[in-house]
Design brief:
mainly alpha; Four Helix Bundle (Hemerythrin (Met), subunit A)
Length: 184
Amino acid sequence: MMPIGPLMIEHRLIERMIDVMREEFVLIMKEKKVDPEFIETTVDFIHTYADRCHHGKEEDILFRDLGGKKLTEEHRRMIEELVEEHRRGRNITGKLVEANAKYVQGSQEALSTIMDCIKTLIAFYPQHIEKEDKHFFIPCMDYFSDAEKEAMLKEEWEFDKSLIHEKYRNMVIAAERILTAKKL
């Protein structure tokens, strides 16, 4: 199996979440209100799965290993574009977190920002995924030997195994900081 197999499988799950977000967006527009828990779930999925897990493997493994190859100018440019798109997704998700917090505190103006962020994300991810699936992943595998592909695949599995521990370790650290701040 090529190391891109898991990455492309991850794309299918991200697409499913985008479909859910698209349907929720229609409800938000219709009802002029948002479910803050849905936004929290969405942010958790995008932050943990789409960005940290999926984009993390792309940036920390695939792009890193491609960095040692003699790439065409087109592929080098595409890596830069994809990394910038990852940053853009992180920024939009950050704005969504802030807007949701303001909405929970009673700000009706935050609803507009939430809607803009969701609309942007449901437009962003399908285009980003298509670029990777159809124009980048498969052609880039030609740069690697079978042994290199196998090593990347193993590293991707190890990356996934450590991710849940990282997430919940950070959750405990955040909880400890909150508790410490409350004591002061």
